[in-house]
């Protein structure tokens, strides 16, 4: 195992032909689940994402990425203000609501930030941001936000691993 390979797994160079295997391998990294929201041209918009990460403490920066193939890409790429909601375990139902053809904000109670961004009450944490920078990242746009306000609540996070949602359980 001097080359860093695994004893039981597969070893491959990512390519178009094995894109599913590459995606599955990435799924081994457990992430939280977020809903990112903006004020779109026709009202509130949101989408489910697990591409959220902290970037800098000073200044306070976070990042997320947006697929260029997404139908809502132009609106989210242009948004100067957005909110990132870290979902709690009990909010799993919001995933489908904000996934591709889900209901979105239709019939969902929400509040607005001073910048008119729709926010979902009860998230485990929320980061209200102003767009700081964007960067090309292959088939995605990397969006960096400067955090202007944080709302944090008690609870357990909703997590995503190997294509499934679940709860975090401390092992130690």
Please characterize this protein's 3D structure.
The protein has a single domain (31-158), classed as Pnp Oxidase, Chain A, CATH 2.30.110. The protein is globular. By secondary structure, it is mainly β. The protein is 11% helix and 41% strand. The protein has 3 helices and 12 strands. The strands form 3 sheets. A 7-stranded antiparallel sheet has the order 3-2-6-9-10-5-4. The chain has a 3-stranded antiparallel sheet with strand order 1-11-12, with no helix packed on it. Strands 7-8 form a two-stranded antiparallel sheet. A hairpin with a 4-residue loop joins strand 4 (53-56) and strand 5 (61-67). The two termini are 29 Å apart.
| Coarse structural class | mainly beta
CATH architecture term? Roll
Radius of gyration: 17 Å
Mean residue pLDDT: 90
Summarize the main sheet: 7 strands, antiparallel
Give me the number of helical elements.
Answer: 3
CATH topology: Pnp Oxidase, Chain A
Strand order of the main beta sheet, please?
A: 3-2-6-9-10-5-4
End-to-end span in angstroms? 29 Å
| The named CATH superfamily | Electron Transport, Fmn-binding Protein, Chain A
- Beta-strand percent range: 35-45%
Based on Cα principal axes, name the global outline.
globular
The tally of domains stands at 1
CATH class reads Mainly Beta
Strand elements, count: 12
Helix content: 10-25%
Report low-confidence residues grouped into runs of 5 or more. none
Order of helices and strands: HEEEEEHEHEEEEEE
């Amino acid at each position: 195992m001097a080359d860093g390979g695994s004893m039981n797994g597969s070893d491959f160079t990512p390519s178009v032909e094995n894109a599913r295997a590459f995606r599955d391998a990435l799924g081994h990294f457990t992430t939280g689940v977020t809903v990112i929201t903006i004020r779109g041209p026709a009202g509130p918009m949101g989408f489910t994402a697990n591409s959220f990460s902290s970037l800098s403490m000073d200044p306070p920066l976070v990042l997320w990425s947006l697929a260029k193939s997404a139908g809502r890409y132009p609106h989210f790429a242009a948004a100067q203000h957005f909110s990132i909601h870290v979902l709690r375990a009990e909010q799993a139902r919001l995933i489908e609501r904000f996934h591709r053809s889900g209901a979105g904000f239709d019939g969902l109670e929400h509040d607005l930030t001073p910048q008119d961004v729709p926010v979902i009450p009860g998230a485990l944490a929320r980061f209200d941001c102003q767009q700081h920078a964007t960067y090309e990242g292959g088939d995605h746009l990397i969006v960096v936000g400067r955090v202007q306000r944080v709302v944090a609540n008690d609870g357990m996070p909703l997590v995503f691993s190997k294509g499934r949602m679940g709860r975090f359980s401390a092992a130690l």
